[in-house]
């Protein structure tokens, strides 16, 4: 448990266990499906931003398949520290970056932005390949292809 807390702390995440759950901590291999309810709230005043138990008047838990690079990577990080049935509260550091100061993920780009990004991402992959960083290059190529596939489907 202390190792988990230290790992989370390095990533700017604080964990408070409300109810300990049962059994041993799972290995959480890639491909593991986890189903859980969540509530997201502002730490400053408790304003609830999102709640899986009351979204749109239905009670639908979140389903997450680990290792599939979900856009909010913090979910995989915090879920991997929990036991079955555990209820915990997490506080995460937040960074606010203005538009133009970061590279958008493909899902957040307009069609024009995706089209413009493909050759840039491709060249970044080529440079990583030349440096022998094959895994990182493959990820860049994958992102460029994902942009093209998305545009092609439209």
What structural keywords apply?
154 residues; alpha+beta; Chitinase A, domain 3; 2 domains; two-stranded antiparallel sheet; two-stranded antiparallel ribbon; 4 helices; 6 strands; 18% strand; globular; peptidylprolyl isomerase; PPIase_AIP; TPR repeat; cytoplasm
What can be said about this structure in brief?
By secondary structure, the chain is of the alpha+beta class. The protein has four helices and six strands. The chain has a two-stranded antiparallel ribbon with strand order 1-6. It has a two-stranded antiparallel sheet with strand order 2-5. A two-stranded antiparallel sheet has the order 3-4.
Which geometry do the CA atoms define?
Answer: globular
Strand order of the largest sheet: 1-6
What percent of the residues sit in helical stretches (DSSP H or I)?
25-40%
Reported for the largest beta sheet, the result is: 2 strands, antiparallel
| Number of helical stretches of at least 4 residues | 4
For the record, the count of structural domains works out to: 2
Q: What is the total tally of β strands?
A: 6
Name the average pLDDT.
86
Distance between the termini: 47 Å
Going by CATH, the architecture of the largest domain would be: Roll
Unreliable segments of 5+ consecutive residues: none
- H/E series: HEEEEEHEHH
What portion of the residues fall into strands of 2 or more residues? 15-25%
Gyration radius, rounded = 19 Å
């Amino acid at each position: 448990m202390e190792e988990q807390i230290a790992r989370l702390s390095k990533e700017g995440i604080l964990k408070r266990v409300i109810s300990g759950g049962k059994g041993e901590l799972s290995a959480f291999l890639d491909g593991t499906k986890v189903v859980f309810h969540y509530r997201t709230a502002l730490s400053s005043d408790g304003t609830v931003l999102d709640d899986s138990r009351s979204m749109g008047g239905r009670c639908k838990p979140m389903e997450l398949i680990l290792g599939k690079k979900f856009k909010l990577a913090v979910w995989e990080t915090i879920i991997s520290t929990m036991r079955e049935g555990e209820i915990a509260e997490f506080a995460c550091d937040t960074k606010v970056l203005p538009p133009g100061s970061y590279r958008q993920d493909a899902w957040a780009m307009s069609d024009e932005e995706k089209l413009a990004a493909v050759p840039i991402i491709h060249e970044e992959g080529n440079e990583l390949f030349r440096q022998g960083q094959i895994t990182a290059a493959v990820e860049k190529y994958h992102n460029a292809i994902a942009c093209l596939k998305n545009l092609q489907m439209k």
